[in-house]
Amino acid sequence: QVHLAESGGGSVQAGESLRLSCAASGGAFGGNDMAWYRQAPGKQRELVASIDSGWSTNYAGSVKGRFTISRDNAQKMVYLQMNSLKPEDTAVYYCYAKAYPTVERAYEFWGQGTQVTVSS
Length: 120
Fold this sequence. Notes:
The protein is mainly beta. Strands 2, 4, 5, 6, 9, 10 and 11 form a 7-stranded mixed β-sheet that branches.
């Protein structure tokens, strides 16, 4: 029901910044919990940052103070501003949504991912 499309990834040097964008369609975006996950080669996918419908945010300790998640409900967008990037931030970044179409159901959706590569 919900389609997510990430963009904004790329290759940068350590210390530089990137802003990832996720465009959502097909659902009541404002009521969704949104998040960014990442998966580095050979590692498990991990939660990077989340933002719920009440704008409460949560960050992985490794990115806190450097990354900022935000959302624009009118445009059905979620963003991840990544500053002071480090080589260990290198991963495929995925947009995630949890939708609540009814009080009985919840659905999870994933974007296709966007590559972020940080060189030292």
